[in-house]
Amino acid sequence: MEGAQDHSIRCIVKLGGAAITRKHELECVDEEKLSITCRQLRQSMSLNCSLPVSMDWSRDIEAPNPPEPLDLQGKNVDTERFIIVHGAGSFGHFQASRSNVHKGGLETALGKAGFVATRISVTRLNHIIVRALASEGIPAVGVSPFCAGWSTRSRALEQHNVSMVKEILDSKLIPVLHGDAVFDSTQGCTILSGDVVLRKLAQDLKPLHAVFLTDVPGVYDRPPSDKDAVLLEEIEVHRDGSWIITRPGSLSLKTGVETEAAAHDTTGGMATKISEAAIIAMSGVDVFIVEAGTPHALEAFRSSSRYELSNAWIGTIVRAVS
Ligand SMILES: Nc1ncnc2c1ncn2[C@@H]1O[C@H](COP(=O)(O)OP(=O)(O)OP(=O)(O)O)[C@@H](O)[C@H]1O
Ligand SMILES: C=C(C)CCOP(=O)(O)O
Description:
By secondary structure, the protein is α/β, with parallel strands linked by helices. Helices cover 30% and strands 20% of the residues. Helix 2 (31-45) runs parallel beside helix 8, helix 3 (93-99) runs antiparallel to helix 4 and helix 6 (194-205) packs parallel to helix 7. The longest helix is centred in the middle third of the chain and has 27 residues, at 109-135. Adenosine-5'-triphosphate is lined by residues 16-19, 87-89, 194, 214-216, 219-220, 222-224, 257-260, 267, 269-270, 273.
């Protein structure tokens, strides 16, 4: 039943496009960040301590002979229930912004081509991420929101398919969704951010916590390129959706932050992340925004509530008023 309290889901993680790709270089994966992140996810969700069993039996350009399926007798490949969502980074945003897919235009040749090119690019990244997770022994399966029937109305989420994600989890597999180009009932098409997909899943499935991985240590009071930017340690969200900074004390009670996004970012960058994180927190789920590939990311995966984080943890906590 959708909307039910289901604490058997440990965590929903967003692999930010800025974290796992080089966002300013067309279709370029940050291999090192992706590999560390997949290893940290395996360490956090694995229910057994033995070495990982690769589930990627595909042929590779570097290793042309596909690996032999291993003898899996007696091996445990079960994991805790995690959901993974990823952003597009340098896969998808370039194509979408060149043709304004986020603003519609599916009836024009450029709009149609942009929609197709965006989906080719972002589903390519999904394939790369699913393979990287599978080679760590995580039973990952790709789920494209467009194909699963997710759509918007005036760019706000209208249709979703949370039940399909539940079914995948019930089969002890790990769903890997992503931001996508989708149909929009008023403007034809748009870009649905992975941040919004994560928010909807968190609202309906109520994981113990949610983690946004990105390429900076957390949310700052202004773009981190400004040398005076201060990292926000904790944001408190009120019942009406308004929020205030509670830590550090020097910024306490301040209610806004300055953000900026790359010119080709079609989904609003850090500003979207903060507002979606606030909605998740309002539904009672703690949100941690943290830098990918760091020990703080691993700690965030493993800590089901903010009380489990150590004093040395670096990142931003977004939580409901207590
Ligand atoms: N106030 C701010 N605090 C933190 N980061 C900020 C702020 N303003 C701008 N940024 C920028 O936001 C970027 C991260 O947001 P972005 O939406 O690109 O992340 P992502 O979710 O990892 O990527 P994607 O949307 O492709 O999935 C950082 O690179 C940072 O420079
Ligand atoms: C550009 C596309 C296809 C998806 C954007 O998702 P996001 O990077 O999570 O905002």
